[in-house]
Amino acid sequence: MDYPSLALLGEKLAENNINLIFAVTKNHYMLYKNFTALIPGTTVEILHGDSKNIIQLIINAYNSIRSKVELSVWDQPEDLNLFFTATCQDGVSYPGQRKCEDLKIGDTASFEVSVEARSCPSRPVEHAFTLRPVGFRDSLQVRVTYNCTCRCSVGLEPDSARCSGNGTYICGLCECNPSYLGTRCECQEGENQSVYQNMCREAEGKPLCSGRGECSCNQCSCFESEFGKIYGPFCECDNFSCARNKGVLCSGHGECHCGECKCHAGYIGDNCNCSTDISTCQAKDGQICSNRGNCICGQCQCTEPGAFGETCEKCPTCPDACSTKRDCVECLLLHSGKPDNQTCQHLCKDEVITWVETIVKDDQEAVLCFYKTAKDCIMTFSYADLPSGKTNLTVLREPECRTAPNAMTILLAVVGSILLIGIALLAIWKLLVTIHDRREFAKFQSERSRARYEMASNPLYRKPISTHTVDFTFNKFNKSYNGTVD
Question: For residue 308, what pLDDT is reported?
Fold first, then answer.
């Protein structure tokens, strides 16, 4: 079958005693968690992205299955009502519950099953149904025999004196012979009946046979009604005038007897609309109404101020559970983890203590708590509520304390920090100077390339060699010379 329903899937799993494990990611955990209520014997675990926790997941699921027992019903007849009461390992009875959890080796759980017939079959018949623990091959077949006949019919007294000699005494009643009437067959048809009419009134001034029958020989003969049956010594009773809920007589969970609903097993109230099943009041942590209210008619009525929700699970103003359980943890640490101290026994009376070396911080079923000790250490613990009403308290064996730093380490760290800061500042200064110089040089280069001058000599420039011409005449050694000198 391509798309089986959850009911069909649960039926096939139960037939083959298969326990189903949903290994899903964290995003889909709550969706599949709701399926566990529809498919008995299933568990849900969170699978990591790399699937490395698959072995631990199977171990956790096995431990969960091993510590839980739940009854399932097979082939329940439609005309029978079954009501379960579970007595778990704590000795407390839970009406309407058919499972116990957190069982350990040696614990005992018992179940009481009440069977009620809604009606008697028209002919003798024997029905049977089967009780089976989910996930086990053991089963108990229950055969039901209807007890709709009276054993007193064996000892008949024909023409009994108890019936004025005019009838047969059977099962405490007179069955009158033809033409005789009355509870003791004391009247005969055709006699003056006015003498006996007062005996057909329920009280003085009341109508004969409550206005719903005829009086004949000190006896009311009730009328027939299209709504049901009218009966009683004074026709004062019927099976259709009881309280109704949403138009249904006795809410469909009881029988109407003389104006009063006689509720089936598992229901109470004037109109049998109140269920005694407490499973609908069970919170996700297994506690009834989250220990903040009472389960009345299958619904939680919160008594803790500020609590609300279907199971009183929401309570912004309630005391923090971490704070209330901190006293127990501090007492255990003070007395070296020994809960036999009288003070610790009082503070931890509802706690199941487990000491560990490390705390699992991603556990979906537990709440993680922290607090700082007097020695400035961090103490970590987690708690998870159990169906029994107690709390599984997982405590870290030793608080996490920070070691005091070494003085030399601090000194070296400070000196090193100063040096690093100085070197960093110098590097930044050098970088800024280099950037500034490069910008100035680039500016100079740019301005030089834009300058365009004509080629000419500097008027102030003098050549290193000068030429002068002098005219002169001289006479020496009777020789004369006339010319120029450069």
Answer: 85
| Rounded Cα–Cα distance for residues 43 and 57 (Å) | 10
Per-residue pLDDT, 486? 52
Percent of the chain with pLDDT over 70: 87
Structural element, H or E, at residue 414: helix 407-450
Q: What are phi and psi of 436, to 5 degrees?
A: -65, -45
Give 213-253 pLDDT, tens digit per residue. Answer: 888 777 788 888 888 899 988 899 998 889 888 888 898 88
The helix or strand, by DSSP H or E, that contains position 325, with its residue range, turns out to be helix 321-334
SS3 letters across 227-292: CCCEECCCCCEECCCCCEECCEEHHHCEEEECCEEEECCCEECCCCCEECCCHHHECCCCCEHHHC
Scored b (16 or more CB within 10 A) or e, 235-260 reads: bbbbbeebbbbeeebbbebbbbeeee
At 35 the pLDDT is 80
Taking all residues of the chain, what is their mean pLDDT, rounded to a whole number?
80
The strand pair at 254-257 and 260-263 is best described as antiparallel
What CATH number should be reported for the domain whose range is 321-396? 4.10.1240.30
6-145 CATH choice from 2.60.40.1510, 3.40.50.2300, 1.10.357.10, 1.10.3720.10: 2.60.40.1510
Would you tell me which CATH number, out of the four given (3.40.47.10, 2.10.25.10, 3.40.50.150, 3.20.20.80), belongs to the domain 278-317? Answer: 2.10.25.10
Compute the distance between CA of residue 437 and CA of residue 430 in angstroms, rounded to an integer: 11
CATH 2.10.25.10-classified regions of the chain: 278-317
Q: How many degrees, rounded to 5, is the angle at CA 310 between CA 246 and CA 109?
A: 100
